[in-house]
Amino acid sequence: MLGVLSSSGQLISPSQLEMFVDEIQDMPRIQGFHVVNGVSKSKSLEIGMFKKHWKFHRDLPPTPVYAYGTSEHTATVPGPTIEAIHGIDTYVTWQNHLPSKHILPWDPTIPTAIPFTKKGIPTVVHLHGGIHEPESDGNTNSWFTAGFEEKGPTWTKKMYHYTNMQQPGNLWYHDHALGLTRVNLLAGLIGSYIIRHHDVEAPLGLPNCDEFDRPLIVFDRIFLKDGSIYMNSTGNNPNIHPQWRPEYFGDTIIVNGKAWPRMTSKSDFAILANNAPYPYPSGDPVNDANDMSSASQTRYIAMYEYTSAIDEPTHLYINGKSYDESVTETPMAGTSEVWNVINLTEDNHPLHIHLGLFMVMDQTELVKVEEFKSCMMRFNDAVKCQISKHTHGKRLEVPAHEKGWKNVYKMIPGYVTKILVKFSYIHSNASYTFDPTAEPGYVYHCHILDHEDNVMMRPLKLVK
User: InterPro entries under this entry (predicted)?
Assistant: First the structure.
């Protein structure tokens, strides 16, 4: 059940891997559209998840991984880059071809997708940053095993529908199965997804051929001497959670599937900063503050960490609730809301909201934080605990490079981060072209994968 860890047992020091000996690779590109008589049309893709061996460095043996691709032979880590066109539908049937036993250890004592037969590796794909129907969002309980043999309680369909109606930009897709996100991503299930828009990109005058437009995916790993990926098999509270730990810190940096690769550039210029208006050239400045008076509701979102008798984290909750408790965040479709995110833990937490994009307004330090935290642990009610008395600390301005619409932002410990969340298209203020109130809804969570898995995540259900 807990998977297999290499018997060699010896970690390789990153200093033993010479830097810049492997040329960076470009991942395969798959067009999510057809061109018929010069006109872009919708397209259906089939992309699978396969177990194969992958060579991360010249001096490392090939290692078992899970990889996305159109076949086992063409599957890569990271997966192929899907290129979509704004306003043109892309349909993807994600297919699970993984074996019955995981290559990495995992922990069944945290909330986890476990098939009834105890066979197969649950997976489900989430397009991070995507704005699309709930049925195609990759809900953490919409998992499925190989051949769709078993399915999670919120599974609805095989083919996902991405409308690509949102602002253009770089997204990424990854596994999102309950309790297994960290290990499935560690095994290799990540890839890039780009939405292009000629009318937005053309005025920039940038080179747009593959030679000069190269998506890069950066991640970290730890390796054993036999080349296999290392994942701890013992938890920080082994009597409570045999395997789960609150963080994973890799010591080797991977770019496009290679450890510390070199990149040969044929260009004599690079973009180091961007302060252009959006859409360019006639849109709003990137650092324009948004008017919060349009918000239909203000919410308080509190982050908690719980510890054992040895003062080690056991689990993390949002608003003091587990993931499977009834939904409490029910925004109305087409509206905006102000969320005051209160970080009562000692860690930074990158908050990710599915569907809704948000703008960070400010971050305010809590005063008498232990007094406030004690009240919150008892009542879990920011108003009852008189939060207004505790938000008189240092106020942090949002850095210039962080201004603009986000789907992830770092929540600082001991601070209240005020964000304006928008549940409509940001570039047009138009309503969504799909029904965002459908089941199974969406989620929001900390994007530290170990926290998300145990289980710093809550359901998000839009209403009409």
Answer: Cu-oxidase-like_N, Cu-oxidase_C, Cupredoxin, LPR1/LPR2
Indicate the Cα dihedral angle 414, 417, 423, 429, nearest 10°: -170
Bridge partners of 363? 396, 417
How many C-alpha atoms does 376 have within 13 Å on its Cβ side? 28
> DSSP per residue over 168-225, as a string?
-EEEEEEE--TTTHHHHHHTT-EEEEEEE-HHHHGGGT---STTT-----EEEE-BBT
Nearby residues of 161 by Cβ (< 8 Å), 6 or more positions away: 89, 91, 132, 133, 135, 136, 434
For 131, the token pair is 């704005």
pLDDT tens for residues 358-393? 999 999 999 999 999 999 999 999 999 999 999 999
Q: Which two tokens stand for residue 44?
A: 């259906």
Residue found by looking up tokens 């036999």 in the block? 226
Cβ-Cβ contacts under 8 Å for 35 (sequence gap 6 or more): 41
Burial (CB count <10 Å: 0-12, 13-18, 19+), residue 82: buried
CA angle 352, 354, 356 (to 5 degrees): 100
3-state DSSP assignment of residue 282: coil
Residues 448-460 have pLDDT tens digits of 999 999 999 999 9
The identity of residue 345, as a single letter, is: T
What token pair was written down for 16?
A: 């033993």
Beta-bridge partner residues of 83 = 31, 194
